Amino acid sequence: MRLPIITANWKMHKTVKDSLQFAEEFIGMLGEDRKGIEIVICPPFTALYSLGERLRGTGIEAGAQDMFWEEWGAYTGEISPGMLLETGAKYVIIGHSERRYVLGEDDTAVNRKVKRALASGLCPIMCVGETLAEREEGRAVSVVRRQLEEGLKGVELLRPHLVIAYEPVWAIGTGVNASPQDAQEMSRLIRDELGSLFGVEVAQEMRILYGGSVNPGNIGGFVAQPDIDGALVGGASLEARSLADIVKQTEESVYGS
Ligand code: PEP
Fold it and tell me: Which of the two residues, 35 and 217, has the higher pLDDT score?
């Protein structure tokens, strides 16, 4: 069985102080009696080290929201995989739609980042997903397939150390989520595509997340789907209560109450 993951993407929210306050509340709310759900929190770079230190030993991981594909050099404003590893981060989100569509990141950049993250020992959470116009034009499947093929070009995987997040762009931060059935259909297609890239055995072990207006009320329907192994959560991860409820609902849906 694939271990479900709930990943919080805080985007450009929370200072160091806010992050530490969140951690205190969240750890208290989760309590001791936890079932097998991996939890990853991705704060802004500035809070990564302090949050990572506070989370050490709690079973909750810290992750980054992006990284650059070189290790050192004249790349003003960028952060390297080695710098992330030094903070204790284990995961890194790559190719989030806000980076693709607001900041102009293309499939080639995504591919470089994924390869470098893997080579450095970070686990990439690579995001794919179609825009509303692409869906309305009937191109959702071809867009997601292209993002997978281009983003994973030349990637060799012997073990499933890579997570894919299916995030339809029209569902991110809008309050309009995809239906669990539509998300499952796309996740199935993603798993098939991963099978042709890495072999069926590795693809069966790889985790696929859904992202787009996930909240405590709808998470259960997503993680009940056979090819959806968790969620990437933006807005609803900013409050400790709401993230803790998402984790609880995931536990109930996957393991029963
Ligand atoms: C995200 O940031 O990846 C996301 C899915 O945001 P939200 O949950 O707010 O839609």
Answer: 217
